[in-house]
Amino acid sequence: MNLQPDDFWSFYEWFFRPGAFLESAALKGIVLAILATFLGLVGGYVVSSSRYGSGEGFFAVARAIRDLFRFDLPGTRLRRILALAKLAFKEALRRKVLYVVGLFVVVLLLAGWYLNPQSDDPARLYVSFVLTATNYLVLALALFISAFSLPEDIKNKTMYTIVTKPVRATEIILGRMLGFIGVGTMILVPMGLLSYVFVVRGLDHTHTKVADVREMPRGGFEGETDYTQFHSHTFALDENGEGLTNIVRGHRHVVLRDDAGNFKIGSPTGALRARIPSYGALVFRDRSGNLQEEGIDVGNERLAGGYGSAGISRLIGVTQGTRKVEHGYVEGGTLGTAEFTFPNVTKERYPDGFPIDLSLRAYRSYKGDIETGIRGSVTMKHPEKPIESNPIAFVVHEYEVDEKTLPLTTEGTDGTETRMLDVFEDLVDENGQMTVVVRCLDRAQYLGVTPASVYLRPADNPFGWNMAKAYISIWLQMTMIIAFGVMFSTFLTGPVAMIATAVCVLLGFSAEQVYDTRHYIDAGIARGGGPIESMVRLLKQDAMTTQLDVDTVAAKVIQTTDAGIVYTLDAIATALPNLPKMVGTAEFAASGFDIFGAILARHAMATFGYVLLAFLISYFTLKAREIAA
User: Fold this and answer.
1) Contact at 8 Å (CB) between 396 and 308?
2) Backbone angles phi and psi of 249, in degrees to 5
3) From its phi and psi, is residue 33 left (phi > 0), alpha (psi between -120 and 50) or beta?
4) Which pLDDT tens digit goes with each residue over 165-212?
5) Which 3 state secondary structure label does DSSP give 479?
């Protein structure tokens, strides 16, 4: 998966950004609140002055604010909110929204026809499918039920009956939101359970036979399983008749040989998991062995800037001009290396060895032997002293996670002396840090790494809990969209409110592209220009990399206009929720990574902020309509 720098921040780092408070979520939230307050006051005054005159309009706005804090909020009662929520819940059920669950069941039943049974990573395919299908169905449902409710009540005069009762505007808004959230939750829970059953049963299979079994000279057995679900495994057993198959399509099996000589193959393991990675600080060495912040650039376009020495846990040194971390490459057959220094290397976290996962890229400067692949090596090293283990060779498997376990004791060198090394005693420093060095062994070939390409894996979380957290993220997105739908429905008709909410959702999904465009403009990197320049290039059939074929004044006007458009979109995208980040939790689950609590806490905080903003806007617009006044 494509990991972003801020995916690894804790909630505290995300909210306060120590050392960079101007980029913190707290400051952005404060600025957004001030801006929303200012625009709300100005908009409210303009509407009120058009109705009552400039003087009375000011007092009308002041009375509305006074009523909120003096009467409506203190007078809001949970009993009335729940009664209105129950009403909204029943109203949504009358709209046949439960058919969404039936539609989801049909989608799951038909999914087997379209999901590729020969996929290299079926777990990723299945998990990504169910989460994506759930996401789109639930968000579409939230968009529909929240946008049409209030306008229909106003059109049918139902709202007039409600407002004549001792019910406050705050209770109407909160009741609507809670009722629709309850409907969405009732639909989301069975969809989550069905998704879990679909994924687990879809990936479950057994191998019942073995072939080509041969006894090894030093004891134990080797063989191969039968061909099931478009794959087979090879396996090796020790002298006790216990062993594992190789990893194929993201999973492996436990193999046992009983006293009667029969081989028993267990259920698949390793396909559905939630890895808890421990990332390290990444630095490079060039072909002469000199330290560098960046690896070799083999031609992938990216902005200037390095990974920095603070590592993936901070990534303070990562380039601020791009949202994606590009690969840096290590030259083979030289002193070039990529060195990862891992923290918290303790006996409690790694009692049986060091599980390490490699996800590397390979770049060939000549064709070479395509069949065998590019070779690399992993070496454990003391961060400061000249002590290191002997290298462990491997062959790069691109676009796959290569799982290995580094031993607790290994042969290595201490200066000029060769001896057995105890990793915790000899290779881990007093701060609990250890360095892992990755090299490319083939001359004139290259290995590509990012700060997340190599990580230790001290533990795994249950897959079921990880799926539950992915559905919690979907629930938060649903809650946010319901709040926006209710907000727009207080002053727009149903279809227009739905379109306005959909536009906000689409702009939220486009936030990353807007950020990238703005960063490229800031860095002065030409990529065809902004919307106006791109349109001119299309009409003139000019390439992206050439100078714009217009006179100097026209070029300046076009570039200035483009900058204004892009910065305006950037301001809007910054103000709207960054939905790709929330949807990205599905990618965590599909890729087998744990959705750690800080991500959900950040999403929950963002959801609370936008729901609060939508509630306040809904309250004032509903009060301004003076329904049944």
Assistant:
1) no
2) 55, 35
3) alpha
4) 788 889 999 999 999 999 999 999 999 999 999 999 999 988 988 888
5) helix
